[in-house]
Amino acid sequence: MVLAAALAATGSAALGSPAKLHGGNFFSNCRFSHTSYDDPIVYPGQPGRSHAHTFFGNTSTTASSTAASLRAAAATTCKPAADKAAYWVPTLFQNGREVRPSKAQFYYVLRGYDQMHPFPAGLRVVAGDANSTRPQSTRVTFWACGGHAARAVPSSEVPVRCGVVRGTGFMIRQGQTKPTAITWRAKTYLELHVDFPDCWDGIHLDSPDHHSHMAYSRDYVCARSHPVKVPLIRLTLRYPIDRGTGVSLASGGVYSGHADFINGWDQRAFAKLVDECFHDRPCNDPRRP
Questions:
Q1: Number of separate domains in the chain
Q2: Is 232 part of a structural domain of the chain?
Q3: Sign of CA dihedral 10, 13, 14, 17
Q4: Per-residue DSSP letter, 65
Q5: Among the listed residues 250, 259, 280, the one whose alpha carbon sits nearest the alpha carbon of residue 110
Q6: In the chain, at which end, N or C, are there fewer CB atoms within 10 A of the end residue's CB?
């Protein structure tokens, strides 16, 4: 692949021009698929070699999965159904018991200037550091309390207790013409957030450390070393617990938050979504094919 070389000139021109920031996002809602000790990126072809992982999306994902096998598989837990990508995270435990996420949402953020490219078929990425024993940048991963009407507050530490959010507002009841003041309360839950890098080197589908072929943009602008702007995947995992006591990740402690991705999307459908969304056309309905 020589996409990086072809874009070098346009990328440098964009840095010096007052281009307009635009684009929106679309999302995949993906249910839990399965748990296993496989990792087709870090330990390909070595079943059971890894720590425990929780998988979403393509239900066929094993240690031997490839881009071709993912695309050939029939089942995915994601909506839209065109998303046959494989997603996985370290399994979360509380006091030694597995806690399965009740919700996994993958926002594809397409904010940028003059260019936006879909991921190439088969791209492999690990976001975050599975070996970290210290807090990582909250730009990459963080913990928070989330739920209906809750505003996630990033923290490197696991919240001890999430509790209940209360608020006031107004609504118009059937048959009324004037709004009625209401109060509401909503329980919040523990969440893990991971943001994937959004700049690609234009050449490699993977790298020895599974990081170096990708980079994070600065103010949505990519560095010359990774000039190809691609969507930013913003992962939110919600766990059906409201206390962080006794919580740990299978990769070790609470600072080792990370997530893995292999692009197994229907490539034509994915490219169409990226084009529509980047050019500010409707694109974020997960019920679409």
A1: 1
A2: yes
A3: negative
A4: -
A5: 280
A6: C
